[in-house]
Amino acid sequence: MTDTRDGTPPGPSPAQRPARRPGQPAGPPLPATRPAGAPRRTGSRREGTDAVVDCAVYVDGRREPPVDPGDALRAAGERGGFVWLGLFEPTEAELGHIAEHYGLHPLAVEDAVFAHQRPKLEHYDDDLFMVLKTARYVEHEQLTATSEVVDTGEVMVFLGRDYVITVRHGGHGDLSELRQRMEEQRDLLCLGPAAVLYAVADLVVDTFVEVAEQVQDDVDELEASVFSPERTDDIGRLYQLKRELMSLRRAVAPLELPLQKLSERQIDVVPDAMRSYFRDVQDHAIRVRDQVGSLDELLSSILQASLARTTLADNEDMRKISAWAGIIAVPTAIAGIYGMNFEFMPELEWRYGYFMVLLVIVVSCVLLYRGFKRNGWL
């Protein structure tokens, strides 16, 4: 197995490597790849609140009594369990302090602080770091050209032999209910930290399914509007929905490869019993990817149809304008001719000339109108 980050062979196996003590870092700190500065934040975490949402030690699938995050790893090692530490938008200093206790890799810590990463799976020694995009459907009464349809966030997961750390960014994707459900499934929690990674990935993909189904309703509404007998202007709404769907596609599409690695490759921190679970999540992710791709293609077709209908409507308007202009040109021409101030013009002295001119104008206009009507110009 090779390192998923740069293709180099991994280090020695856990049996050959001395056990890492709590508080001992994974290696010498590496230089930051980004300029120093404040990380990008979503602004959903209130100032002065603790980044630690929950911290618990699980032994044989049971939650142990509360323990301080700084002592949790040691307690888990003594009791033969693992730690599940949940964080919400930690700062660089907060996550750096936790990284010292758990020996997290500096590059993974940097990605977790700055966020805005694409879904991926990184392998550092015998530990894993996975990034998942979360999504939420934004309710709206009517889709407009500026409506927000899909709101995205992120969940990062640090996975070790005796710990799992979840770092959440964004105002949605709360993992509290997931933790409660997991605590009711002791058989799954007994499989170790990899079970938590599976549960988080499964929750994220299930959310993608719900969002895709709700976006489908918006697509159906736009399709009905575009092909309705009434004349509508849906190009702005179509383009906006297509942009919002792109955000969902960027969250779903790259997730297939990390899940495939978890389900097929031999990874120390992922028990063989967990591979079938990750394979099931991968199947769901592929289904969502195909559904999102189909929606995107359907939107492209609807957008082209809307443009074609707009062009056709404009052509019909031009034909109508041209037809009426042709009809109006007849009385205009006749009135213009007889409006010239010449003394010797035909029929000027005729008694019924005025009525004859009116009759010629009416007959000509009626014939032109019938001709344009028969040809579909009016």
UniProtKB/TrEMBL annotation:
Coiled coil: none annotated. GO terms for molecular function: cobalt ion binding; cobalt ion transmembrane transporter activity; magnesium ion binding; magnesium ion transmembrane transporter activity. The chain crosses the membrane at residues 321-340, 352-372. It is found in: Cell membrane; Membrane. Its main location: membrane. Keywords: Cell membrane, Ion transport, Magnesium, Membrane, Transmembrane, Transmembrane helix, Transport. PANTHER family: CORA FAMILY METAL ION TRANSPORTER (EUROFUNG) (PTHR46494:SF1). This is Magnesium transport protein CorA. It comes from Geodermatophilus obscurus. The lineage of its organism: Bacteria, Bacillati, Actinomycetota, Actinomycetes, Geodermatophilales.
